[in-house]
Each structure stands twice: as structure tokens, then as C-alpha cells.
């Protein structure tokens, strides 16, 4: 059985981490490379870096940050945000990303995922899905940071993206995000019942039990969190130990 993964997530704007980070002995908590180095030392299984810089001039900063991060961090690095064309993926992979996450661009052009998967291999293509509950057992895909509804059913979309060659799905519940009340386990379960590729649960972690629930109840292969790690509430080794004690296979 494959070990489950814990993935800290950094939101980066113009080369700076924006969800506040409170590591006691980090010289510059706003530098994503410093933060990533810390997580690497703590034993994170992977690191996800979401570039929320909307401007194109910020992109060069992003490539430089990825290069610096890849030199420092020896666990798989997933980079997402503003990936719109094959060239963007090539540049990020060349800069040192191991995987690239595609979000809005997949919604506007699903064939982009097929093209990317065929060109670079499914193992480096993650499709990020931002879903919001719209009714009983119904979730809809939203774009633009959860502001724009698309009318696309999130469960059907997950199946389509798996068929189109996504190697992994990063599923964020827009309802749970930031609430600290836990992942949307029903959403995770419904998607995991329908797809065979790995899924990453995201949005809503407030404690270590939420991570365990994402795997045990939601069926996720990996669990992503930001603030519980950034604010020093928990460390990665603590989280791994907690999950292992619940019988979850972890790389300790």
C-alpha cells in the first residue's frame, strides 16, 4: 500500500508567502524558499506552491522562486497558479517543479489537460478543482478564486479530468476553506468513488484529526494544509505520528 502524504501549501504573491507564516527561527517568513526549506527539514512528503500573482510581470519572479526552491527542497514540488499554456508548464518544469497544477485553464479548455498530459506525462499534471456545494449531493466548479460559477458539476468534472489524463486531482472545498471545520468529506468520498487516480483533499483543516478524516473518511491519498503548519500550531512530524497512530501508512 502506498504511504499517504502530508502536503503543506504556500500561497505566494509576487515572490512572497502571503498567508502569514509564524516560524520562530525563520529569518524571513515571507520568503517562500525559507518556508519550504523548513518544511523540507520537517519531513513534508511534498510541497505545493500556489502562485496567486495575477500579473504577467510577476511570472519571472515565480520562475526564479521555483529555481531557488528546487535547489533547497528535495521533496516533490508542485507549482500552480496562472498556468494557461503548454509553454508555462515547460518553463515551470525546467525551473525545477516536479508537477504543475492546472486550474481555471482546464475549465476554459479541457483539451489543454489532454495535450499537457500527452506531452509531459500524467505524473506531472495535477488538475485543481475548486468546488462549492449548491444543493443536496451537488457541487459546482467555481473559477476566479471561487467568485465565478461555471455551471459544471464537480463530480462529473473530476471523472472527465481523470479521463483526459490528469495524474492527480487537488480538490478544494470553497465552503470549508478557511473555516477550520474540516474537509468536505462527502465531496471527497463522491469523487473517490468515481475516479482511480490519486486525490488530494484541501480546504478546512483546523486540527490533526481533520487530516486523518480526509484519508480515512474522505478516501484521499494526500492531505493538504496551510495555516495549521504556518502558524506553528502543529509540525509535520507531529501530524505524521498522529496519522500513523490511527493505522494510516506514513513515511515517518
UniProtKB/TrEMBL annotation:
The keyword rRNA processing does not apply. SUPFAM superfamilies: Ribulose-phoshate binding barrel. GO terms for biological process: L-histidine biosynthetic process. Its EC number is 4.3.2.10. It catalyses: 5-[(5-phospho-1-deoxy-D-ribulos-1-ylimino)methylamino]-1-(5-phospho-beta-D-ribosyl)imidazole-4-carboxamide + L-glutamine = D-erythro-1-(imidazol-4-yl)glycerol 3-phosphate + 5-amino-1-(5-phospho-beta-D-ribosyl)imidazole-4-carboxamide + L-glutamate + H(+). The active site is at 11, 130. Pathway: Amino-acid biosynthesis; L-histidine biosynthesis; L-histidine from 5-phospho-alpha-D-ribose 1-diphosphate: step 5/9. It is found in: Cytoplasm. Gene3D superfamilies: Aldolase class I. It holds the Pfam family His_biosynth. GO terms for molecular function: imidazoleglycerol-phosphate synthase activity; lyase activity. Keywords: Amino-acid biosynthesis, Cytoplasm, Histidine biosynthesis, Lyase. GO terms for cellular component: cytoplasm. Heterodimer of HisH and HisF. IGPS catalyzes the conversion of PRFAR and glutamine to IGP, AICAR and glutamate. The HisF subunit catalyzes the cyclization activity that produces IGP and AICAR from PRFAR using the ammonia provided by the HisH subunit. Belongs to the HisA/HisF family. This is Imidazole glycerol phosphate synthase subunit HisF.
Amino acid at each position: 500500500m502506498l504511504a499517504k502524504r502530508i502536503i503543506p501549501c504556500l500561497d505566494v504573491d509576487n515572490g512572497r508567502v502571503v498567508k502569514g507564516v509564524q516560524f520562530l527561527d525563520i529569518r524571513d517568513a515571507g520568503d517562500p524558499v525559507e518556508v519550504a526549506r523548513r518544511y523540507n527539514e520537517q519531513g513534508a512528503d511534498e510541497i505545493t506552491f500556489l502562485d496567486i500573482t495575477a500579473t504577467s510581470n510577476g511570472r519571472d519572479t515565480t520562475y526564479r522562486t521555483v529555481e531557488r526552491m528546487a535547489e533547497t527542497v528535495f521533496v516533490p514540488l508542485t507549482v500552480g497558479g496562472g498556468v494557461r499554456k503548454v509553454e508555462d508548464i515547460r518553463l515551470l518544469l525546467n525551473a525545477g517543479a516536479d508537477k504543475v497544477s492546472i486550474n481555471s485553464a482546464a475549465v476554459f479548455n479541457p483539451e489543454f489537460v489532454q495535450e499537457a498530459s500527452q506531452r509531459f506525462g500524467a505524473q506531472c499534471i495535477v488538475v485543481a478543482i475548486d468546488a462549492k456545494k449548491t444543493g443536496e449531493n451537488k457541487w459546482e466548479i467555481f473559477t476566479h478564486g471561487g467568485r465565478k460559477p461555471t455551471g459544471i458539476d464537480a463530480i462529473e468534472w473530476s471523472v472527465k479530468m481523470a479521463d483526459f489524463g490528469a495524474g492527480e486531482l487537488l480538490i478544494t472545498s470553497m465552503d470549508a476553506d478557511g473555516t477550520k471545520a474540516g474537509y468536505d468529506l462527502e465531496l471527497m468520498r463522491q469523487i473517490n468513488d468515481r475516479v482511480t487516480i490519486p486525490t488530494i483533499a484541501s480546504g478546512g483543516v483546523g486540527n490533526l484529526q481533520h487530516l486523518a478524516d480526509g484519508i480515512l473518511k474522505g478516501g484521499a491519498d494526500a492531505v493538504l494544509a496551510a495555516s495549521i503548519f504556518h502558524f506553528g500550531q502543529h509540525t509535520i512530524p507531529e501530524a505524521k505520528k498522529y496519522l500513523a497512530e490511527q493505522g494510516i501508512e506514513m513515511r515517518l
